Amino acid sequence: MKPSKDISRLIEIMAALRAPETGCPWDIEQDFSTIAPYTIEEAYEVADAIARGDLDDLRDELGDLLLQVVYHAQMAEEAGEFAFGDVVQAITTKMIRRHPHVFGDEKARSAGMAKGMWEKIKTEEKAEKRNARLARGHDPEDHGNGFLDSVPVALPALTRALKLQEKAARVGFDWSEATPILDKIEEEIGELRQALAKGDTASIKDEFGDMLFAVVNLGRHLKVDSEAALSGTNEKFRSRFSYVEQALEASGNTLERATLDEMEALWQQAKSAK
What we know:
This protein is mostly helical. Helix content is 72%, strand content 0%. The relative contact order is 0.04.
């Protein structure tokens, strides 16, 4: 087996890894649910390479993400459901259908993307998907029947909170402005304090979640994406902590030996420096 730029070689490799008698024991025992976390992780690593502007890493991480698609398709083929080619056909069909102003006839191309066309196409796709699920004997609503059930459970929690709030807002279930949400956050902090005073572990977790949900809501009203804001703060923390580490090293000290007061003093220097 030799490397190749042809996608068929990657599919062959995945099939070989999953071969019952001669494949890799670890790969053989995996299923959709055990591989899903790796799929999500690889998507984040792609985003990380982009954020760092590292195109060498981006090439490799895109390959890792592509492997995840091939992996899921291989398992689906083994189950007699669909193969990698069906995945490619599905997305090419969708892209062609959603861009009639690019791939349609001359009249469609000259007209451009008509107002409401995107929504019309999405509605048609949803109807087709529903009919296909019915034909397979599945629940026609793949995420449930509730208004919010279409928001994927597997999204990162902050992102899912935002999506749930955005969708509820479409039917008017929303704050009219940001200021009252600050009061709500303070209310949730008060309830968290009460849970802490009682030492109730379950309530502490519940109230902490309520507080985070309210903070995401505030960010939405302020037009601040919570995921992006927290990512920025994470990097700021990493950078400042790195300053503390390097400063200690320059003075012959280490993180392990330094006192909290020493680290705090350097932390304040880091804040002033940047």
